[in-house]
TrEMBL record:
Pfam families the record matches: PDZ_1 (PF12812), Trypsin_2 (PF13365)
Taxonomic superkingdom: Eukaryota
Organism this protein belongs to: Salix brachista
Domain PDZ: 365-429
Protein name in UniProt: PDZ domain-containing protein
Amino acid sequence: MEDSNSLEILESEMESMDLRIQESSNQVELDSVSVPEKEVITDDDWRDAINKVVPAVVVLQTTACRSFDTELPSSGSATGFVVDKDRGIILTNRHVVKPANGHLGLLPEKEAFADDWAETVNKVAPGVVILQITTCRAFDTELPSSGSATGFVVDKQRGIILTNRHVVDPGPVNAQAIFASNEEIPVRPIYRDPVHDFGFFSYDPGAIRFLNYEEIPLAPEAASVGLEIRVIGNDSSEKVVDFFLVSKSLSVLYSGDKLYLLQVSILSGILARLDRNAPTYKKDGYNDFNTFYLQAASGTKPGSSGSPVVDKKGRAVALNAGGSSSSSSAFYLPLERVVRALRLLQKCRDTHANKWETVSVPRGTLQVKFRHKGFDKTRRLGLRSETEQMVRHASLLGEIGMLVVDSVVPGGPAYGQLEPGDMLVCVDGEVTTRFLRLETLLDDNVDQKIGLQIERGGISLTVNLVVQDLHTITPNHFLEVSGSVIHPLSYQQATNFSIQCGLVYVAEPGYMLQRSGVPCHAIIKKFSGVEISQLEELISVFSKLSRGARVPLEYIRHNDRHRSKSVIVCIDRHEWYDAPKIYTRDDSSGLWIARPAIQPKILQLSCCSSDVEQRPKIQSFSLFGESTLAKHMHQSTKLELTNGDVRIEDSNRHISKEAHSKEEYDAKTKECQEQGHFSSNEIVTSSCSSHEIGEIKLKDQSTTEKTLLIGIEAATSTSTSFVESLIEPALVMLKVDVPPSCFVDGVKSVASSGTGVIVHHSQSMGLVAIDKNTVEISACDVMLSFAAFPIQIPGEVVFVHPVYNFALLAYDPSALGADGATMVHAAELFPEPALCRGDSVYLVGLGTNLRAQSRKSTVTNPCLALYVDQDDRPRYGATNMEVIELDSDFGSEFTGVLCDKRGKARAIWGSFSDQDYQFVRGIPIYMISQIVNSIICGGNGSSLLINGVKRGMPLIRTLEVSLSPILLSEARNFGLSNDWIQALDEKDPVRRQVLCVEGCYAGSKAENILKQSDMLLAVNKELITCFHDIENACQALEECGDNDGKLKITIFRQGCEVDLLVGTDVRDGNGTTRAINWCGCLVQDSHPAVRSLGFLPEEGYGVYVTKWSLGSPADRYSLTAVKWIVHVNGKPTPDLDAFANVVKELGPDECVRVKTVDLDGKPQVQTLKQDLHYWPTWELRFDPDTAMWRKNTINVLDSIHG
């Protein structure tokens, strides 16, 4: 249940009984006769059988000498047993024998556990249960997770199970208990102690029908040094009984007329200490304190937290809690306070007519952490000898120390009164040297004053303090907004951090806070200019903000509390998550009940605020926080902007010197023409863009020309700086954030950044081109920072090319203001003629200060065919695409634009991803200019709302086939005729290649027509040698209005020329626009990267699982990603509509059968149970009419809104 890297892991240590070596070697007989159903088997029978069998069991020391079949070279140990003593035959597993040569060494196995403990184990083990725990939300010290632990029945009649506090969890939890009869029943938390590591689950005793078991009595008084103990518990949730593993023992239970094999681990040990200080587990996680712990030597096994520590009489003398990862020590919690809490629970249950209500377990605190220190250490702290003598005389015989103040929580009852190093002498006149007595006094005096006598540096002091109710500083509610979990700082974390309780604490930053750089464990101090000290104040500020607002937030970190940090928080513009909710713990039901954190009327008014009213606020905050945002950008960003500052002052000085408007650019071009840089017939403008109505004009052209001359004189000192001055007004730095709720299409990165190029800028719309490695999907938030004007504004993804590695984003030019709109202009696109090898180009991008950086380079390969292999999780990889290589660049993270000497854009310099690394190449501008022109002039696809105007978007006709080029010389070896080789060589003497089919996209019209290794020779009798030829042929079909959509392709297949009619597919640039979250897994239609593998399930394709969430039912039942769901409860789910119709009818407690198919085509049937309370089924869908992503609930429990 805890981090394995912690100093002392929250899991008990498991070790079986030693097995005594037998001198004789008996033979185990293989017998197929089954045990009669009603036969009575006694413990003596089993002891005789075990003692007879064990000597024939051997330990096998194996060494696999070579790699062979499924095995690699290795050495290790395993188990076998003798099945033929005369011939010397041992039976073991196939993977132990190995398919290749190996060496075996034999060691005899040990004897089973001692006979005198068998009766105790058989009596206790049925009351021990395996707990399957799912922590549904981050809260306090815990993070979302799924795992297993141990508990045991302490009240059979009322149905109460005891386990650890870190198992019950302080926050929302979903849990099931598995009894020895393999009966699984739900359990719910009824109490978890605020400090000590114990808690209780309740269950329905009537649900256990096939097992006779008894509750395990609690006997804390029986614990003593030297007591022999056994710890019986779950061993890593392993369900396979393996008697011969040293870490396990097998117990046999005869219950009624049924025989059970108890799948438990048994730890043997002897109590060594009863007064160990509580172990320290994590600096920022759960730690117990103000109690002694018991200690014994043992090994460690995960999953055994909450196991009973029993004596030979079958009584629990302690609760297994933790262990040391560096030494063989186990730590057990004493049970005195557990017994008190259990009695109060039982009394509460009896009082409320056998119904569980909120239980009142009085707990008092001074917000002081004590540690027990020996008299040798207290003397060094200044303890007077007469005080020591008095304490020794008044305390129990053998007392060796006192309680010393270790830390005091700021703002608590003892703050300013007690100090670290103070030695506690008396409480209300009673000498108190033990935690148990101190806890009793505090719990019995809640909200009352007590007197403490202490010694501080040899001076006796008396202080009177009010005992605080510990439950009032233990949070029982939290705010969930945009995936963030925020609640009052708990006493646990306040003690860890030495920070005042109740402050606004970020348990999980989620999406909104994480994208702003707010970390986990942050304490929010100010939000939107308002001081924040309570959660209610934060909610009040939230209620006044509208979607898309950008406001400052100030926070501190627990490990850097003296320096506050400021960031800009962007309120979600899209409905990535539910509206803010408050979850409150309901102890009567064991659930956390949700209610709206903000009244709907307030939200509606905020959302209806006009853009005009909100825009000044957005602009002012962008100036305030631009440099701060760059400093605290999330670590997973891809460019050096993450570590740099955006200098507003530098940008302003830059603006005063250089010209940035479209007219200035044209004037500069004219001036350069007059100076002989290039001729008039070389000036090319992108079609449609310069003629669009509403192009931005400068008011004072003479002033512009004057400013231009100054800029030209400064810029022409070198050709590089001249190109920079021409293209810099068209450069934009993009910061892209993908909400974790929208990780579709195999997206890996939460955040990324890169340099984009403005390819269109008018009064009504601006368009920016960027590579798809930066903007991979349309479900994201994008912020644009302009090189020409210091401002940040949002952008929206309007087109994601289905084949090529680029996307287009739109922004609202009016958001730049009058000055910004005139300083920003679009790059002049120059698609033809294409770049050739040896051409000189200028690579221009933006540095961390948003100033242009450039380098003159030479094209080494203008038509490099790119083919990116898919990794284990399919995502976009560039295929059927030719890119540009340069002789030098700025490294694999620098993106931008390739310009000629006149500042015209010839390509964008984009980022590509291949497996676990990324690289950069040039993307020819013709690929982009065609789409830009289509959007400006109106495409033939569906309409999309862009800046309040509906525009027809382009459709892309494509041959959905993965192609790769092979050299003509290699094609000859495959049998391609000399005539074809000569014809292809004459057609394209530069490439000298032929395109070969790597595979067809599953579900495409080319599937089952073209086959792998087919060589494409001609389309419609026209020779083809590159991807551009295929694209032109598809475009010709679109232009001629051929509804058939088929290409006449001549191929070479297995020595023969074949003419085929191959269908093409039409795709839009919307990308994935719909996904469903069910049981914490995100499902979608199969995206192109998946279909490019050439396989879809035969059973109606199915819906593709692209992501799963920690702490969800998918996590609990291992419904992982990268597979298809083809059936739910036997009903086919070929697409999202069918899937939604099936899952919305499922009940909350219904056991669901899910049939899945993985990428290798292997089917599997899994089962799970929904958790509609914490994980409702919802859909995320893009609405093109409003250009908004909206979240709709499909199936949810009514109680979630209670």
